[in-house]
Amino acid sequence: MNSCEYINDFMYFIVRQEGSAAYIYCSGVNITRFTPLTAGKHRLGQNIVMKGLQSSNIELRSYILLRGWQPRTLRGGSCHDEQVRSSDDLWNAETLMIENTSDDFSAEDVVNYSVKNFLRIVLPQCLPPGEIPEALLNAEGLQTWLNSHCKT
Question: Which superkingdom heads the taxonomic lineage of this protein's source (predicted)?
Answer without folding.
Answer: Bacteria
